[in-house]
Design goal:
With about 250 residues, this protein is mainly α. It contains 11 helices and 2 strands, in the order αααββαααααααα. The chain has a two-stranded antiparallel sheet.
């Protein structure tokens, strides 16, 4: 798949490519139709993630043929306006879909930051998209970075002051609690039971020494610590299962 950095190079060099080539609007439109079709396949889940890579490739080809070509897709209903897509619109949507396929709320920090980077690149192609900014704000909340989420929502309103979805996004982020990042043990509850076993062994060793009092305390604390760890571990697994189910429904 064409990634974020490749998209950046394409965006900055397509004019140079265009200047050294003849305009081929029909060829560009055909490539854009294919890109649109691959994106639609991805939404319908009739295709794998490879569909996004094919879509990105055809957008690149369209840029080299006519960077100003616009794809008009007739509306499904007669009384609706047709959809008009620029190559930037399609590129932004492709990146958004890539981020959506990578994203789930319980992901590790590295994955979430990669998703945020992809979404920011999508927003560069489509700066007025409220949906893309809403997803980026959610990712920042998952990273326990409410201030960045708030900045994203405020920028959405600044660019779209009369858009109700932008204003609702700002309301939602303002109402979101300012959560603290979890501790190591909260992120990794499976480490607690082995530590509890170690504490219990240490307690048994100390119990037969002059430090018997401390050993007794450790022996009592070990099973408590063990069951607390197992409980947190089960809660973590349940949280992950709920998040995975939520992701499938979306």
């Amino acid at each position: 798949m064409i990634g974020v950095h490749t998209w950046s190079r394409l965006h900055h060099t397509y004019r140079e490519i265009f200047m050294t080539s003849e305009i081929n609007t029909e060829g560009a439109l055909e490539d854009m139709r294919l890109a649109r079709s691959y994106l639609d396949d991805w939404y319908k889940k009739n295709s794998t993630r490879d569909a996004l890579g094919f879509a990105a490739s055809y957008i690149e080809k369209a840029r080299s043929k006519d960077p100003d070509a616009r794809l008009v897709v007739p509306a499904e209903k007669k009384d609706e306006e047709p959809d008009v897509f620029t190559q930037n619109d399609l590129a932004a949507e492709c990146l958004y879909c890539e981020a959506a396929s990578d994203y789930k709320p319980t992901d590790d920090e590295k994955t979430l930051r990669r998703v945020a980077s992809t979404l920011k690149r999508a927003i560069e192609f489509a700066p007025y998209s409220v949906a893309y900014r809403a997803k980026l704000a959610d990712v920042y909340l998952d990273l326990y970075d409410r201030s960045s989420a708030l900045a994203v929502a405020q920028e959405a309103v600044r660019r779209n002051p009369k858009d109700l979805d932008a204003r609702k996004l700002l309301d939602r982020i303002q109402a979101a609690p300012d959560r603290k990042a979890p501790t190591f043990f909260e992120r990794n509850p499976d480490t607690i039971p082995p530590i509890a076993i170690g504490v219990g062994i240490l307690g048994l060793v100390l119990f037969f020494t002059p430090m018997a009092g401390l050993g007794g305390l450790l022996i009592v604390a070990a099973p408590i610590l063990y069951f607390v760890g197992r409980s947190k571990e089960r809660s973590k697994l349940l949280e992950k299962a709920i998040a995975d189910q939520y992701r499938k429904q979306k």
